[in-house]
Amino acid sequence: MRLDKYLKVSRLIKRRTVANEACDAGRVTVNGKPAKASLNVKVGDVIEIAFGNKSVKAEVLQIAETSRKEEAKEMFRYL
Q1: Average pLDDT for 42-49
Q2: Are 43 and 64 within 8 A, CB to CB?
Q3: What's the pLDDT at 52?
Q4: According to the model, what pLDDT value does residue 61 have?
Q5: Rounded Cα distance, 23 and 68, in Å
Q6: By CB distance 3.0 to 4.6 Å, which of 8, 27, 51, 65 could disulfide with 16?
């Protein structure tokens, strides 16, 4: 699954366009490397997102095309 879509479906970022812009600006890294929005995300990848002066780090636990709000929390684990 594309990184920008995963960020939206897992609700780490609310909108796909915002996820796309964050990737283009270099604020998203996957496994320590800057990532483009088109990068394929796999189970076990570590995603780090810089929001201003704080940063969020999460590990991908599962991938789903769609998810409800309750299920979205099970798609990743905060580190």
Answers
A1: 95
A2: no
A3: 86
A4: 94
A5: 24
A6: 8
